[in-house]
Amino acid sequence: MSFDREPITALDLMAYADGRLDPVRRRAVEAYLAGHPEARGLVETFIEQNASLQHSLAPIAAEPVPDRLLAALEGQARSRSPLALLQAASVLGLAVLSGLGGWWFGSRAAPVATTPPAFLAGLELPQVGTVLGSLAPRAESTGEPAGETAGPSEPKVFERTAPWFTDRVTVELRAPALGDRVASPELQRLIEIDGKPTVRFELAGSEGRALALYLQTRPSSTAPDIRMVETSRGSTAYWQDGPLVWALTGDAAAAELQALAEQIGTAIELEPRLGTVDAEHTELEPVPLTFAAGQPLATR
Amino acid sequence: MDDIKWAIAREIPHLRRYARALLRDADAADDLVQDCLERAIKKRHLWRRRGSLRSWLFRIVYTQFLNGRGQREKAQKTARLDDLDRPITLPASQEDHAEAVEVLDQLLTIDEDQRAALLLVAVEGMAYDEAADTLGIPIGTLRSRLWRGREALKAALPGRPGRRRPSLRAVK
Question: What value of ipTM does the predicted structure carry?
């Protein structure tokens, strides 16, 4: 029995064939079809159309995707574009993203991703008035003449913000999920090798063999590999530094952005910290890795 | 590859199918999809995870398709879906292949707007509201286009028995 009293229309039949009716209406249509063979024939025609179209077009979707489409996905078409020179150099936008992908043992030898990081698409240009206005009072507070406010290319501006960065940029190192291979917690040690704190992590190898995983931090020392990319909103310089990806964008010439990016990248010092080694070298303090941006290590 | 690129990559085969059924020509269809992908990557910040990524991508393809309509009409491209005569990856029987060419040839005789709507619903399996949103039309307009498209297709493909063609059928 159907409670749906609305008359059945041709569009209902089509929606029924497409499977787009709610259960109540579907039931009403089925009741109608039972007494109307011509309507049933129409529905069968529509169902047959769907099946024919799906069947006929299925091979196209099964074809290998051409390389040029995959290249488009990687933004390679845009990467051919020359760097655009933007207008006045006045503002600085800076973004930082932390992530641990591919960073292990503090390695800086890992190749820099050739594909611009996804977050570049979300960068916003700072407002000129806002940024300049916020810089001026700070310059006064440091005793510098207002007329000689450190411009965006002056590292002093960034150095003043370093403590702020230090408070906010923390990279948490998560232990690899190794399941049964991880030996008992008693076999995890914070030891000292060559005067440096080192984590020693024992693992179970095959046939009862013991393996050891070591982890030491390694402060950055090399100049960053700055890359430029053109986004819909202008030029952006980005670089990868350990687990961090930096991006510098703003209403400035690409050459200026690159020069400033190199300046910032060199000024930043990544100093991952493992913790302190106690007298017996047996306790591993649960201290997350903390990176200091141009500042002494901060204990968190 | 980040999440959104991965999600976009998954839609490429469907976008290619849609574009080819709209445009007839395989190279032109891939050009259309490439335009779509470049635009999607460039504008992906505009997709705020509201609604379906699939709809957004198909909307880009359809918009690009509409933008090129005048140029296409001027060029008078009337090529059939000859690319279906080329070997395709799925091992289709000769009979299936001939049927596919026939169905698609008939599909290409119906109005472009109706075809665009019909493909989204019948082939890509979109709900009516999603298809309407993709095409940027009210749902009533979508239903109307679907109906007229189906009527036109019914006239072009009369008397088709069964979902999968049995062994006996006319040979073109």
Answer: 0.81
